[in-house]
Amino acid sequence: MKLKDMMYVAMFAAIVAALGLLPPITLPFTPVPITAQTFGVMLAGAVLGARRGGMSLLIFVLLVAVGAPVLSGGRGGLGILVGPSGGFVLSWPIAAFVIGFLVEKYWGKLNLSKIVIFNIIGGVLIVYAIGITFQSIVTDVAWYVAASYSLAYIPGDILKAVFSGIIALQIKKSYPMIQKDQGAKAA
Question: Which of 40, 98, 118, 176 sits CB 3.0–4.6 Å from 16 for a disulfide?
Answer without folding.
Answer: 40
